[in-house]
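Final report, Chapter 2: Outcomes

The project's central promise was a pipeline that accepts a single protein chain and returns its three-dimensional structure in a standardized token representation, suitable for archiving and comparison. That pipeline is now operational. To close this chapter, we reproduce one record exactly as it appears in the project archive, with the input sequence first and the structure output second.
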Amino acid sequence: MAPSDRDLVAGLRAELAAIAPARACDRAAEAAGLAGGPAGRLGAVARLSLRLARAAERTAPAAFDWTAAAEHCRLAYLRGLFLSRGSLSVAAARTHLEFVVDADEAPVLAARLAAMELPASWRMRRGRGVVTWKSTEVVGTFLRLIGAGAVLLELEVRQVARSMRGDLNRVLNAESANLQRAVMAAGRQLAAIEQLEAEGRLGEQSYVVRLVADARRETPESTLGELAERLNLTRSSVQRALERIEWLVLHPDDGERRTWRRASIGRGRRPAGA
């Protein structure tokens, strides 16, 4: 994950840790979610743990009763669980959020999240349970539910920007490939025109073929559509003329004995690009 992404995730955790639940039940639920997390926590999370402990008069957090808890308490518990045992990656245009919990907790947590319409997968990793989301939409919904605000908006803006860059790159790659094919086709056509003219065969062709050949030599970079507009012809007429030119070079012996339309048009030949 790039430094800017790491800073953004750290900012998200700090923002969530700064939330001060107004209800005593929410404070107790968040403290229960924080319990059992690693000792070396982000400073803001460590301060949150101390703040909640003081609010509870330094008593150990009670076990959280998910079944009996109200929705706001469940969200406070999940916020504490994310801060203590959750991780978020937003690198490489993907979003990946996971909780690392005890082995027996993973299927329970996954079932609870699914009941909240936040379906997650779970698996075992080195003896620990890992509950995972890889859906940007689900991750965004979860973070919004547990209180993320400004940092989540920045995350979403980055995701949109990355998606737009990806779409733009795909369009540019497609255009580049089309341009390369057009350049290669124009090169073949120019070589064929020169060969036919050197052999004295170009002048024997129809007026349209000769007209298109002259236009192609004058503007090698033109597309089929541009040639058609310039010559006041249909695009298909220009394409057939260029295909005719290439075909004559490939079939020098019988090129004049066959009718082009019967021999080539309609037989699924690869169109000449431009």
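Archive annotation: The radius of gyration is 34 Å.
This record, like all others produced under the grant, will remain available to the consortium after the project formally closes.
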